[in-house]
Specification:
The chain is of the alpha/beta class. It has 15 helices and 24 strands. Helix 10 links the parallel strand 11 and strand 12 (268-271). The longest helix is centred in the first third of the chain and has 17 residues, at 29-45. The N and C termini lie far apart (52 Å). The chain binds malonyl-coenzyme A (MLC) and adenosine monophosphate (AMP). Residues 159, 204, 272-275, 294, 296-299, 318, 375, 377, 389, 392, 398, 403 line the site of adenosine monophosphate.
């Protein structure tokens, strides 16, 4: 009888050991266990049973972290969602996931009620106050973790589709537990570590890499509500490790307070979710004396590859397959690529998701006939055994570590009265790596940039809305009539000053 993920998350931390430092409030592993028990009891009282989905759209707080742990303990798959999503975006996820419970900010409750279907709604705000907190406070701390098999689901995480709607990646207890265990060992996490946790916890990086790795090692976390470069630098003397997206590293480098002394006590800086420029890697090493450890993963697979803890961390390379993970590159013809040859990256291993929620057709299409997952990423494995990524098959834009699918943004822009058509591209940007940019063809009378942005406000989360809108008489097309986005990208490559600023 066990709950493999929950058991492992709490296996290493001694009850009295520090787990979370959240400003004035600190929590030991014992406190975390008790808080988690109260929320798990509250979930049970609300009728949330094993397998029931819990949709969570909350600001980052210790309470929202505890809710994740309580869902694992209660056997209820969590569906974490970016708090920046509009109600229009939320409607799809709720209809698709069919949750038993939705937990949202009190300010959102009224709007969410109109979308909830049969789901119950409870609230939690950024300070951890709300109806769920009230229920938990009145509930006992003891709770027997619900029995789960390794194949039972722990989470459903939505990834946007290149075409069509978002797909819910089903993540099992096995996938999450084995991946975090592997990373904790590879990156040498122990109970002596203190991780600066500045990432959001609605995505794989902040939740299943940062939180799971730290807890499984019995380490402590300095839990910051959002990324602020100065707050991270301030925490470094009390910490040993940081995980972040490349934007964190470029913003930290922009601070004169980032020095070798400031970073001195730290032992590990991990980057992932988007390409880390080799220039950033080198600049970081020159300034702090530390080589950033870059790793590669995705929602469907967790982490796949990592630069080594000992040994060479190569700028521009995402490293070697993790222990237990198989990785291959398929050439265009489907044959194994030769060393250095660019092809499709495919992976296999216990870290893989269990398919897309209620979508066997998309699940089937995501795997090769011999059972490997097609990541959609392009890359090459060199003679040195390191994987170097060189782009993606589709037009995916990664901005500040968040994925944006042009098709979704184009559909929203095209729906604005007066717009004839649009093409959305990512252009090099010093802060975000890539910036969402729209090229729009208008009818007569023309529509202004402000009018388009205002119309998008209630449809798209801020990170998906274009940083700039360019107007054109027509879009470049090839002989097949398809918009040639590569031509648009090269024509406007310097719109934000190119990638130079990022180095
Ligand atoms: C916020 N904004 C962004 C943005 N984040 N715009 C583009 N890209 C982003 N990533 C917009 C807001 O809508 C707002 O616009 C304005 O920027 C200021 O918002 P903010 O909240 O103050 O921004 P900031 O706090 O500076 O956030 C930027 C950030 C954050 C980079 C710190 O986005 C972040 O923490 N990103 C990490 C995402 C992450 O965890 N990715 C991992 C995915 S898992 P306006 O117009 O409203 O003013 C994954 C798998 C793997 O990929 O391998 O890990
Ligand atoms: P997501 O769908 O949000 O999980 O994003 C996963 C995608 O992020 C991957 O398929 C890659 O394209 C990208 N990604 C993750 N880590 C890296 C990295 N270290 N370098 C380049 N791209 C990365």
């Amino acid at each position: 009888m066990s709950n493999p993920l929950f058991d492992r998350l709490f296996a290493a931390g001694a009850a009295e050991a520090p787990a979370i430092d959240a400003g004035p409030r600190r929590y030991s592993y014992g406190d975390l266990m008790a808080e988690t028990g109260r929320v798990a009891n509250a979930l049970a009282d609300l009728g949330v049973g094993p397998g029931d989905r819990v949709v969570v759209q909350l600001d980052k707080s210790v309470a929202s972290l505890v809710l994740y742990l309580a869902c694992v303990r209660a056997g209820a798959p969590i569906v974490p969602l970016n708090p920046a999503y509009t109600l229009a975006e939320l409607a799809y996820f709720i209809a698709d996931a069919q949750p038993a419970l939705i937990v949202c900010d009190p300010a959102r409750a009224e709007g969410v009620a109109g979308l909830a279907g049969g789901a119950r709604i409870e609230t939690l705000d950024g300070a951890g106050e709300g109806s769920l907190a009230d229920r938990a406070a009145a509930s006992p701390a003891r709770f027997s973790a619900v029995d789960r098999t390794a194949e039972d689901l722990a989470a459903i995480c939505y990834t946007s589709g290149t075409t069509g709607r978002s797909k819910g990646a089903m993540l099992s207890q096995r996938a999450l537990a084995t991946n975090a265990q592997t990373l904790a060992a590879l990156w040498r996490f122990t109970a002596d570590d203190v991780l600066i946790h500045a990432l959001p916890i609605y995505h794989v990086h902040g939740l299943f890499v940062a939180v799971n790795v730290a807890l499984m090692a019995g380490a402590a976390m300095i839990f910051q509500p959002r990324f602020e470069a100065e707050a991270v630098i301030e925490a470094m003397p009390r910490a040993t490790a940081l995980m972040g997206v490349p934007t964190y590293y470029t913003r930290l480098l922009a601070s004169p307070r980032l020095t070798r002394e400031a970073a001195g006590p730290m032992r590990l800086f991990v980057s992932g979710s988007a390409p880390l420029l080799a220039a950033t890697h080198r600049q970081w090493q020159a300034r702090t004396g530390h080589a950033i450890l870059e790793r590669y993963g995705m929602t469907e697979t967790g982490m796949n590859a990592s630069n080594p803890y000992d040994g060479l961390r190569i700028p521009g390379a995402v490293g070697q397959p993790l222990p237990g993970v198989e990785l291959r590159v398929a050439s265009e013809a489907g044959a194994p690529a030769s060393p250095g040859e660019i092809g499709q990256v495919e992976v296999r291993g216990p870290n893989l998701f269990s398919g897309y929620w209620r979508d066997p057709a998309k699940t089937g299409a995501a795997f090769t006939a011999d059972g490997w997952f097609r990541t959609g990423d392009l890359g090459a494995v060199g003679a040195d055994g390191y994987l170097r990524l060189s782009g993606r098959g589709g037009d995916l834009i990664i901005t500040g570590g968040l994925n944006v699918y042009p098709a979704e943004v184009e559909a929203a822009i095209d729906a604005v009265p007066g717009v004839v058509e649009s093409a959305v591209i990512g252009l090099p940007h010093g802060d975000f790596g890539e910036a969402v940019t729209a090229v729009v063809v208008c009818g007569s009378p023309p529509v202004s940039e402000q009018a388009i942005l205002a119309a998008l406000q209630s449809h798209l989360a801020g990170f998906k809305r274009p940083r700039a809108i360019l107007f054109a008489g027509e879009l470049p097309r090839n002989a097949m009539g398809k918009v040639v986005k590569a031509a648009l990208r090269s024509a406007h490559a310097d719109l934000y000053g190119g990638a130079v600023g990022q180095a």
